[in-house]
Amino acid sequence: MPDQPFKDHFSAAAADYAAHRPTYPEALATYLAGISPGRERALDCGCGNGQLARLLADSFDAVVATDASAEQIAAAEAHPRVCFRVAPAEASGLPESSVDLITAAQAAHWFDLPAFYAEARRIARPGAVLALISYGVLHLDGAAEAVLRHFYTQVVGPYWPPERAHVEAGYRTLPFPFAELPAPDLAIERDWGLDDLVGYARTWSALRGAQAALGTDPLPDFAAALARAWGEPGSRRRVRWPLSLRLTKL
């Protein structure tokens, strides 16, 4: 079991998380399935509302998706090949040598990593893949990106949990005591409107930290500034999050 308590930054925003967090590209799930030793079972740890787990279900006979937050699991959309469970990443409850792929997408920086790695070794079949996946700050063209960057770094920046630094470093600062595999060049890309981007910012843990510390909500001012920079009302912009992966075979 983990030595550290579960740091719950997301249960209170589970509905917004389900509605506004970007989904992963199909190419990510296809690639991970292709390097796995089999396709019988995958485990997605810290699954949130199941964005990656449902994609993995297209390639695996069964996917177990766990999260320590009951609210996140409750917000997950059901899938016939995905079993959602409330469980910490460090204690999956799965049998030994029973999993072909273990993923943690935008979640590993919250884990007790030594305990998680021990659990991964316990449940992994020979040659099973372990994948830590993260995405950082999105990119978009034009003046709207400058507004977004200012809000991210200057307005709510001081209120990001310290673990956020690992995300910004592409997980290169996380301990990863394994022989590492090369990672493909992948990204999340979406065509988003103004409301999509504001809704995404609403899911940030730093926003909730700023609201608590300042006693006011900085999001409406951000939304207004973003609208001024966005251009034609109702228009959509291509947004992009480069993915960072750390991969190994256990």
From TrEMBL:
Presence of the UniProt keyword GTP-binding in the record: no
Keyword field: Methyltransferase, Transferase
Domain Methyltransferase type: 43-131
Class of enzymatic activity (EC top level): transferase
Keyword Lyase: no
Domain of life assignment: Bacteria
GO BP: methylation
Enzyme Commission code(s) on record: 2.1.1.-
GO molecular-function terms, A-Z: S-adenosylmethionine-dependent methyltransferase activity
CDD domains per UniProt: AdoMet_MTases
Family assignment from sequence similarity: Belongs to the methyltransferase superfamily.
Protein name (database record): Putative methyltransferase
Organism: Methylobacterium symbioticum
